# Entry
Amino acid sequence: MGAQSLAVACEALALCLALAGATNPGFVVRITQAGLDYAHQHGITVLEKELAQLKLPDISGDFRLRHVAKVHYEISRLDLRSFHLPYSRISLVPNVGLQVAISNAFAEMDGNWRVKMYFIRDHGSFDLKVENVYIKINLKLGSDASGKPTIDTSDCSTRISKVRVHFSGKFGWLYNLFHSAIESRFRKILESKVCENVVSSVRNELQPYVRTLPVTARIDAMAGIDYSLVAPPTATAQSLDVDLKGEFFSLAHRSSVPFSPLALAFPPDHDRMVYFGASSYFFNTAGFAYHAAGALVFEITDSTIPKGVDFHLNTTTFSAFIPQLEKMYPDTPMKLRLSASSAPFLNIGPGGLSLKPIVDIQAYAILPNSSQAPLFLLSLSSNVSAIIDVKSGHIVGSLKVGRMKLSLKHSDVGTFQVRMLQSIMNVFASSILLPRLNARLDQGFPLPLPDRIQLSNILVRFHQNFLLLGADVHYQPRGPR
# Structure
């Protein structure tokens, strides 16, 4: 094999290894240009306030006036009255990050001056106007070892086109003669200080805020969600995409999930500020985690039957369908234990969200000594559909059960017609089991949102292998401290 062929083979092997090691996200957050523009508005407001608090150093120096007199001057107590950023925009830089461009900014300040020239000594105040300020800020996006997002300033440049100083005082005409030297020093100092302030603002304000994005979210006493980033955020020409692990896990014992997320084919929607892509992997890890935690086991006794249901869970009721029960265990209370032998597997397609769970129903007779005698074991299967919505930053839902199918897996009381139990099992499912599940689903699962973010104008759409949620964003600033 020649050297060139060997190099090609090595490159191909490296590509295969890279692809094999690539991890598809279970959950994707897409921020559109509209969302970035909204965030940019609030960011510029913060930056404007920060720049208005710039601290400038005192200035002193010597200047020779017309090759005759040497003038010593001092500028002190510089007070920046305002710093305005009237025109700015944020742009996506594909494969790099974000760029903020500010133009035609202006500032005003005042201060005190003091001069000494021969026998002339004087002092007074001055006004300074800074106009046509241009600032360019490049923001680099990344993630740390814990999977939290990071943001930093990779580059900042400031250019000031015009600085005007006006001195007032007894010899103001004299001081205004060498204003160009003073203006040049002001320009250099301001250009440096502005970028120092920008870097500080990004690190002290923006970076801590983006890190409020939760990488883990506790749901209840049994499960949580892993929202850690699987890769740094990616900027494209139209959006900023954040790939998250999107995986439920059991709090008691976290184990590896026996399936992998599929790639999500995001549609080119840009009407909302933000979109969330929740894959079938995301939902199926929920079933896996709750099954591993033992949460998909339900026990029904007579005391759990709602008052509106007109029958009791005992052998007398079931003897209408299984006559031998009354002879073997006369007027004996019963218990039904519902459990899934495996985690339910959910499918998402353009038509919606559905699953076909298989549930084992073990019936027991509760004897006077509180021991339990097994009666029969049924297998129940049904088509279940789900309705999904977003409420208070949570994915909420409700289930609707279609026609159920029963089969007998084992009997300790002899043979009987399973179809005769169909109606009573329908009652148990619709009146007891389904309300329990829907009550839990109505509490919802938290979306990965930074602090003080509220969603509105919600869009819900189903695509192959993932659920698409779109929303506009409202940021609620902190109140005054």
In short: Residues 179-210 form the longest helix (32 residues). The chain has eight helices and 23 strands. Residues 358 and 381 are 5 Å apart (CA to CA).
